[in-house]
Amino acid sequence: MKMPDPDYRALQAVNYSGLKLFAECPLYYWDRYLNPDREPEPRTPALVIGSATHCRILEGLEEYAARYIREGVFDKRTKAGKEAHAQWLQNVGDREPLPADEWDLIEKLAASVLGSPNASALVEGPNGYSEEVCQAIDPETGMLLKCKVDRIQTIGGKTYVVDLKTCSRRYGGASPNGFGKSVANFKYHWQAAFYTDLLNASGDWGPIENFIFVCVEKEAPHAVAIYECDDQLMEAGRRQYREALHRFGECQDKNSWPGFDSSITSLSLPRWAL
C-alpha cells in the first residue's frame, strides 16, 4: 500500500532501521523512538537529497516535479537578493526547493540508472510498484514488523525486492569489493533478509524470489552496478537480524534499554590496526 512518510513513521511497528540502531545500542533505540522528551529531528540535507533521488528514479519525473523544485540563483549576501529569494519561496507552494547543484546531480544519477537497460527494467519496468509499505506479524515473536520498499518488480514471472543505493567512491563506491564492504558495515544484508521475510509473511505479493541492489555512484561518471543477493548473504542477514529481534523482544518485555557497560574494561586495538 502507498503511505506518506509521516504516516509510515507513526506506525507502531519494528522496522529494519530501528532494529539496526537497537543492535548498535539499545539505549540509542530508546532515545530515538521512545524518549518522550526528545525533540523532533529536522530533515538533514542528506536525507532530503536521498528522498529526492529516490522519488526521481522510482516514481518518475511527473511526481518528482510535483514535490520538488530547482532553486533559482540568488545573491543572498545582499538585501535585494534575500528579498528576491523570499518572494520566490512564497511562489513554490508545497514543493521542496533543491539547490541547483543538487538538482543537477539528481538528474545525472537518474540518467545513469534509467540509461542502463537492466537497471531501468528493475526500477521502472511494467508489473512493478514503488514505495510500497508492508506490515505483518512475525510468526515467531508475534511482533508487528513494517518496511517501506523501494520497488517490488516482477520479471519473467518472478517477483523481486529492489533497493536503490547511491554510493560514494570515498566508501568503496559501487564496485563489488567496495559495495560488499558497505553491505557488511551498514548491515544491508539484514535489510535484504528482513524485507524479503516480511513481504513473504504478509502474503500480499506472492513468493519473493530474491533481493536486488541497484547501485549508482554519486561521483562522475556515475557508474551503475546491480547485485542479486546470494544464499550466504541472505542466510547471514536472516540469522543476525533474528537474533537482534529476539533481544529486542526481551528489552521490550522488561522495558529496559541498556547502554554500554559502565564498569572499567580493558581496551585493545582492533586487529586491522596491529
Q: Explain this structure to me?
A:
- The protein has helices at about 5-10, 15-25, 25-35, 45-65, 80-90, 100-115, 115-125, 175-185, 190-200, 230-255, and strands spanning about 70, 95-100, 130-135, 145-155, 160-165, 210-215, 225-230.
- It has a five-stranded mixed beta sheet with strand order 3-4-5-6-7, sandwiched between helices. Strands 1-2 form a two-stranded parallel sheet.
- Helices cover about 50% and strands about 20% of the residues.
- The protein has two domains: about 10-35 and about 120-255, Lambda Exonuclease, Chain A; about 45-115, no CATH class.
Comma- or semicolon-separated keywords:
274 residues, alpha/beta, Lambda Exonuclease, Chain A, two-stranded parallel ribbon
CATH topology type of the largest domain:
Lambda Exonuclease, Chain A
Q: Reading side by side through the largest sheet, how are the strands ordered?
A: 3-4-5-6-7
Sheet with most strands: 5 strands, mixed
Q: Can you count the beta strands?
A: 7
pLDDT average, as an integer?
93
Total separate domains? 2
N/C terminus separation: 50 Å
Beta-strand share of residues:
15-25%
Count of DSSP helices?
Answer: 10
Radius of gyration: 21 Å
Helix content: 40-55%
Protein structure class: alpha/beta
CATH classification class of the largest domain? Alpha Beta
Quick structural overview:
The protein is an alpha/beta fold.
Secondary structure topology:
Blueprint: H1 5-10, H2 16-24, H3 26-34, H4 45-67, E1 68-70, H5 79-90, E2 96-98, H6 100-114, H7 117-124, E3 128-137, E4 144-155, E5 158-167, H8 176-185, H9 188-202, E6 208-217, E7 224-228, H10 231-254
Parallel strand pairs: 1-2, 5-6
Antiparallel strand pairs: 3-4, 4-5, 6-7
Helix pairs in contact: 2-3, 2-10, 4-6, 9-10
